[in-house]
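Me: Here is a favour to ask of a fellow structure person. Could you put it straight underneath, so I can go through it closely?

Assistant:
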Amino acid sequence: NRTQQTLLALRDFLRTRGIPLLIVLIPHPLQLDHALQNEYLASVGASAEQYDFQKPQRLLLAWCKENEVRVIDLLPVFESAVNPAALYFQNDIHWTATGHQLAAAAISPFLQVNLPIQRGSQN
């Protein structure tokens, strides 16, 4: 509830200034690595049927739709990568150059359509 309230406040703050909110959902390495998922499940004594690794995205996608917030979900993009393990540094949640390139390729078209650059402006 606290996160939702904060996001609503941010959305409303930006709206009063004519700025749309865009949320980019970033997958956790655990969501992509099936071996790591199995290790996690074993450590908490759960089975794959008892744990939904896509729950964060499902909840946030539904919230964004309900609250008219633009969203880009990188989970399907990262899942479709030839080698998802190459997107993150080993034992780290931070992206490698490959991860950054894939994210940029997914986000850039949306920004180009929705946030066109003012040609000739002095920025």
Notes: The mean pLDDT is 91.
